[in-house]
Design a protein that fits this description.
The structure holds two protein chains of two kinds. Chain A is mainly β. Helices cover 0% and strands 55% of the residues of chain A. The chains are: A mainly beta, B mainly beta.
Chain lengths: 114, 110
């Protein structure tokens, strides 16, 4: 059973397009996250949702819009894709949102913008 | 801004040797965690050490924490080729989510 799953695994698209990445967790966790990992492996938090409510919104262009239809799902929609958006995007979840809970990561979505 | 910094950036050893990687951080923390990332995969949680703990073991892993020096070390004993991966420390500064370092790339050769 996959605890945190993401689709698609790979995404190749043209500049200017709009795309979505989906994430689902079956761990019953209350909190979900989106991270961006660049080519140098630096992992940066983008968003965090707790029980469908946004609790962390780092300095991310407003072309990125997360959506949480329920606490088991957190999707990421990206408008007007740019070359610099190429990266690996990871979804993660944790039991709670406070005090650095252990996080469980999905396999990642490799986005390449041409 | 980045909280944790791992050292070294890369480490190459032979199977059977021990691997030690270090993490330094800047602000006070509630806990410090180590994660492993195999190539092309997501991060996997290895071990969590709380700010009031000094040492913790899990199988072949040994983690130490020195809050006075704001540093931690991860020791992998009797390394195996399957330990080849990137290792990240993550800290929780105050009431905040985790902040990850840039990782140490470990290569274990057979």
């Amino acid at each position: 059973d996959t605890a945190v799953s993401q689709t698609p695994k790979y995404l190749v698209t043209q500049m200017g397009n709009d795309k979505s990445i989906k994430c689902e967790q079956n761990l019953g966790h209350d909190t979900m996250y989106w991270y961006k990992q660049d080519s140098k492996k630096f992992l940066k938090i983008m968003f965090s949702y707790n029980n469908k409510e946004l609790i962390i919104n780092e300095t991310v262009p407003n072309r990125f819009s997360p959506k949480s239809p329920d606490k088991a799902h957190l999707n990421l929609h990206i408008n007007s894709l740019e070359l610099g958006d190429s990266a690996v995007y990871f979804c993660a979840s944790s039991q709670e949102s406070a005090l650095g809970e252990t996080q469980y990561f999905g396999p990642g979505t490799r986005l390449l913008v041409l | 801004s980045q909280q944790g910094e791992e050292d070294p950036q890369a480490l190459s050893i032979q199977e059977g040797e021990n691997a030690t990687m270090n993490c330094s951080y800047k602000t006070s923390i509630n806990n410090l965690q180590w994660y492993r990332q195999n190539s092309g995969r997501g991060l996997v949680h290895l071990i969590l050490i709380r700010s009031n703990e000094r040492e913790k073991h899990s199988g072949r892993l040994r983690v130490t924490l020195d809050t006075s020096k704001k540093s931690s070390s991860l020791l992998i004993t009797a390394s195996r080729a399957a330990d080849t991966a990137s290792y990240f420390c993550a800290t929780a500064p105050g009431y905040s989510t985790l902040t990850f370092g840039k990782g140490t790339m470990l290569l274990v050769s057979p």
